[in-house]
Amino acid sequence: MTSWRLILTYEPTQAAQDFSDRGTRQRAATTDTVMPFFLEIRERFPTKGARAMVSLLRQDYGIKVSEKFLNQFFKDVEPEALRNRVAKKFKRKRFWSAGVMDMICFDQHDKWKRFGLWPHLGLDPYAGRILWLNIWWTNRNPKLITSYYINACRRVGGVPLISQSDAGSENYGVANCQTVIRQQLDPSLEGTLQHRWMSKDGLNVKPEAGWSYWRRWFTPAFETILDQGVHEGLYNVENPLENLVFRWLAIPWLQREIDAFVRRFNSTPRRRDKNKILPQGIPDLITAKPHLYGTEDYKVIVSPALFDEIEQQWAPPDDPVFVLTPPVFTQKVEAVYEALDRPEVTHRTFWNVYCAILDRIVQVDEDLTMGWDEAQEAPIELIPGQEELRQGGNPVAGYTYLGGLAVPPPLADDDEQSESEPQHFADLTDAESS
């Protein structure tokens, strides 16, 4: 397995550090005191609204600033951008799930293929909780996608009633794992695939909504940074050597940024939505205490030994797809990085570090690109003789239920739910606002 030896710790500016060192009562927010953090955050997240900015300031800088203050701050500092955010409209689609781990939905994202980067998302739609959001140099290898599923299920100690995705051979490994595990633990499911292909039943709505959120609130600044190198001729995704240097630097850096995004997303509530029929609150809290929301955790407990068995069969850790860069290249690039005194990789320094490494790597009189594009695809066949899901797809209260229960619980009345549902609002949120 390739060793990532990058310095990936976040270092705030001196102004930010000085301010965050003060006690809470000393941090009287004014336009002047908030401005350094605002400018720093805008470099990474140019479209963040007031609620998300509250979350970022609190979690990344240790600073408490009210949403009311930030709304006025935005009116004073960036009135045009504020008007643009207010004018944004969303296309709404209703989705219903019976409870926590009723299902896991996942989907790939191809918008960054021009960089050779392939994000992949999996979530629990009931809680709205992201289970994984990973970025790698491919998303077409079923062993890789299966590893995302297995690792996420290991973390929670079990599997959902069903898994769900668009049709595609890259998802066959997950479908097989989910089916084998469920059938071993419940023989009555023998002969039935425990995965739903959404191309047959409708859109894979929840992951698409997740990608929309990610595209709006995470990617703009990072796309600008990455596009800069492409447009200036610094990086050609089809050039093997440039591709390897880029992925060695970009993937660990971006994964760190994505992990921080996921942490904020899961630990803070979205803006309240009157059209939503699923519970509204903090995803981590909904997952941890589903009884407060009138449901239960439908997770099927799986032993570590069974996970190990499934992993060895469908996503063996020694497969080449899990290697960031070929070993011969990794050895050379780590030596070059060490010789450069291990420069920090951030949104400000990425292309400078990339160019410094590339300038030295091209001087190496050795082929470092052998096997650079191996393991992009490694087909897996679906388990033969399995029928489509017998359960799910039943209309309930006017909504189509696509989960794994034969008899889903009745849908709560919207008015009743709004009165009885516990409200757990943190003093920082990751929902976007004007």
Label this structure with key terms.
alpha/beta, 434 residues, two-stranded antiparallel sheet, 5-stranded mixed beta sheet, 2 domains
Q: Could you give a quick summary of the protein structure above?
A:
The protein has 434 residues and is of the alpha/beta class. The chain is built from 16 helices and nine strands.
Characterize the structure shown:
Residues 106-276 form the Integrase core domain. It comes from Favolaschia claudopus. This is Integrase core domain-containing protein. Residues 405-434 are annotated as: Disordered. The structure is a single chain. This protein is of the alpha/beta class. Helix 3 crosses helix 4 (67-77), helix 4 (67-77) crosses helix 5 and helix 6 crosses helix 7. It has a 5-stranded mixed sheet with strand order 3-2-1-5-6, with helices on both faces. The protein is built from 16 helices and 9 strands.
Ranges where pLDDT stays below 50 over 5 or more residues in a row are 1-11, 414-434
Number of domains: 2
**Shape assignment:** flat
Q: Please outline the major beta sheet.
A: 5 strands, mixed
In spatial order, strands of the major sheet run 3-2-1-5-6
Class by SSE composition: alpha/beta
